[in-house]
Amino acid sequence: MLLSLRQLSVTVMSTSCVMCRVVYACLSLFVSQVPSEKILRAGKVLRNNILSRAPHMIRDRKYHLKTYRQCCMGTELVDWLMQHTSCVHSRVQAVGMWQVLLEEGVLNHVDQELSFQDKYLFYRFLEDESEDAPLPTEEEKKESDEELQDTLLLLSQIGPDAHLRMILSKQPGQRTVDELEIIYEELLHIKALSHLSTTVKRELAGVLIFESHAKAGTVLFNQGEEGTSWYIILKGSVNVVIYGKGVVCTLHEGDDFGKLALVNDAPRAASIVLREDNCHFLRVDKEDFNRILRDVEANTVRLKEHEEDVLVLEKTNNRSSGSSPLKYTVMSGTPEKILEHLLETLKLDSQFTESGALQCVQSEREIICCRKWLNASFVRQRMFQCQCSFQICVCVCVCVCVEVLFKVYCSDHTYSTIRVPVAASVREVIAAVTDKLGSGDDLLLIHLNSAGELLKPSDVSIFSSLSINGRLFVCPRDQIDSLTPLPEQEGPSAGSMSTFELMSSKDLAHQMTLYDWELFDCVHEHELIYHTFGRQHFKKTTANLDLFLRRFNEVQLWVVTEVCLCPTLSKRVQLLKKFIKIAAHCKEFRNLNSFFAIIMGLGNPAVCRLSQTWEKLPSKFKKSYGEFENLMDPSRNHRAYRLTMAKLEPPIIPFMPLLIKDMTFTHEGNKTFTDRLVNFEKMRMIANTVRIMRYCRSQPSSDSATGKSHQDVRSYVRHISVIDNQRTLSQLSHRLEPRRT
């Protein structure tokens, strides 16, 4: 259990001495007594490579008349990592990778310090602790050389967490500006803190303390005790226990607890018990919690009219401005007062112009720049002929005023072709069909897929929101149960491997990227907002976004369909290899949307259960697939993916489902109105997500990624045929490899 100030004798110690002991105790909690096999091997690989390539780095060293045996210098270890891998982008990242070895005891500071530093400090590998440490043989050197890049990739993935723990275990007053920024960046991805302002998060970065507990069943605090801390779960889970009721709920990573007792200055309302081993927490002590609350209130400016708040501002430090150290940030307000405040503070950058996209309106008081929703590409009138398969090649953005032609089927599989605006509601579609059929019946519009979804009258943009093999049916209510899918909705009966196995994996990935970019480039930023808040409220279309999201599902199902329709074991193994290669090239082309679609397709239950197929896959491809799966790790709010994204330069095709998830999380986790005022902080968080999409498209896409562009490859990737019924895919999978009894 983490030591607290009450557990330490303070009668003859200064406060700083006590804090040092607390930090040491905290650090020692996550320094492993027995290194894991994986990290032990990583240390051996690094030591062998250093002895092979730079043996002078491990030697006896003298400092202050004392000799330290067989040790390395911190700065030299960081230099060596920077020189030997492309996955290390900064010295800070390299420090985190060495910290992993230090936490596991595979690398040790000569004076038993528990944090790795990029300084003139001495560190010794575990194997060199004994005086007769053996040198690696030629065979061991060769094996270590082959494993080096995989080892460095592993450490680069887990290094940031180790580095964060090291920073959080420092005394708050000893954290550098860069370290506070690292903590702040981490807080941006914690669910429990999403509603807090930027100022509060930065304040928390300076006071948070790392706390860990090793064993499940440990009681963090008991019901009825005085509340002394607020906790945020960084790793693991806890049970909330109330006397007489037992476990009332379970809290997981990203959740928080203990705040109510601090706010109300009341006893703990429940007991908290660790649900699993090795749980990590961020802790805010009561004194710091209350100080931050006082600071927030002191820095809050409220403008009132008729004794009611109409505008709430927060005073913040203006780090980017040299003229005025303070500025006021809008937190909430009435729409009129927010706009009035913006008018009073807005400054026009005279050099900022964007031809055709900005409209400048001059007034005597200010100049406002308003972004046009419709530019040239949005006002083009274009007729889309929607075929049954909905294979649409979108070359321009779909505007709300565009009309579409598509088929609506009856229960006997006859159809009528109607023309309606792309943003037409279900009610308008039914009216058009009724007029076409001349029917007086009370008709319902059905989205017939594997689920048989009944559409609501208020639903809009029906054509673009259909599932991949979905079709629109219209019928009276008493005929709903008699509806049957069209034969074509069942998808292909044979795979297309014979077609695309002859195509280069790189060419396939390149053509997929070109098509995905066309779709992504058509998505207007406003569509994210319409999708999040409900497009029916805006009477606007999200057709471009719908088609792009639909493409993700299509690629994912393409992988599953091809594998499940391949009857030969050896061919299925070739398919897995092919898809892993295509995924690697998509990642190389910064097409993260198709990259994740392919990896999620390979992880579909119908594919991952094919154990005989996966057993035959060469270890090289298994390793690659494992690395790709690590990027999909959802822990810490998809931290692995976000770190990867942060290292990429535009143009980038992002993992769009995660952007949608971020928008939805922000929307549902924060009220749009607080005390009848617009929650402007929520709008700011949504805008930050939209800016990610803008950044991804801040540079134009280049067609120079690969030399060849084959028409047959282009045609293939744009006309993929898939099975979208998971039950059918599972049945096909069990026919290929029946469940072992």
UniProtKB/TrEMBL annotation:
<dbReference type="GO" id="GO:0007265">
    <property type="term" value="P:Ras protein signal transduction"/>
</dbReference>
<dbReference type="InterPro" id="IPR008937">
    <property type="entry name" value="Ras-like_GEF"/>
</dbReference>
<dbReference type="InterPro" id="IPR001895">
    <property type="entry name" value="RASGEF_cat_dom"/>
</dbReference>
<feature type="domain" description="Ras-GEF">
    <location>
        <begin position="504"/>
        <end position="739"/>
    </location>
</feature>
<dbReference type="InterPro" id="IPR000595">
    <property type="entry name" value="cNMP-bd_dom"/>
</dbReference>
<keyword id="KW-0344">Guanine-nucleotide releasing factor</keyword>
<feature type="domain" description="DEP">
    <location>
        <begin position="52"/>
        <end position="127"/>
    </location>
</feature>
<dbReference type="InterPro" id="IPR036390">
    <property type="entry name" value="WH_DNA-bd_sf"/>
</dbReference>
<protein>
    <submittedName>
        <fullName>Rap guanine nucleotide exchange factor (GEF) 4</fullName>
    </submittedName>
</protein>
<dbReference type="InterPro" id="IPR036388">
    <property type="entry name" value="WH-like_DNA-bd_sf"/>
</dbReference>
<dbReference type="InterPro" id="IPR000591">
    <property type="entry name" value="DEP_dom"/>
</dbReference>
<dbReference type="Pfam" id="PF00610">
    <property type="entry name" value="DEP"/>
</dbReference>
<dbReference type="InterPro" id="IPR023578">
    <property type="entry name" value="Ras_GEF_dom_sf"/>
</dbReference>
<dbReference type="InterPro" id="IPR036964">
    <property type="entry name" value="RASGEF_cat_dom_sf"/>
</dbReference>
<dbReference type="Pfam" id="PF00027">
    <property type="entry name" value="cNMP_binding"/>
</dbReference>
<feature type="domain" description="Cyclic nucleotide-binding">
    <location>
        <begin position="192"/>
        <end position="293"/>
    </location>
</feature>
<dbReference type="InterPro" id="IPR014710">
    <property type="entry name" value="RmlC-like_jellyroll"/>
</dbReference>
<dbReference type="Pfam" id="PF00617">
    <property type="entry name" value="RasGEF"/>
</dbReference>
<dbReference type="GO" id="GO:0005886">
    <property type="term" value="C:plasma membrane"/>
</dbReference>
<dbReference type="InterPro" id="IPR019804">
    <property type="entry name" value="Ras_G-nucl-exch_fac_CS"/>
</dbReference>
<dbReference type="GO" id="GO:0005085">
    <property type="term" value="F:guanyl-nucleotide exchange factor activity"/>
</dbReference>
<dbReference type="InterPro" id="IPR018490">
    <property type="entry name" value="cNMP-bd_dom_sf"/>
</dbReference>
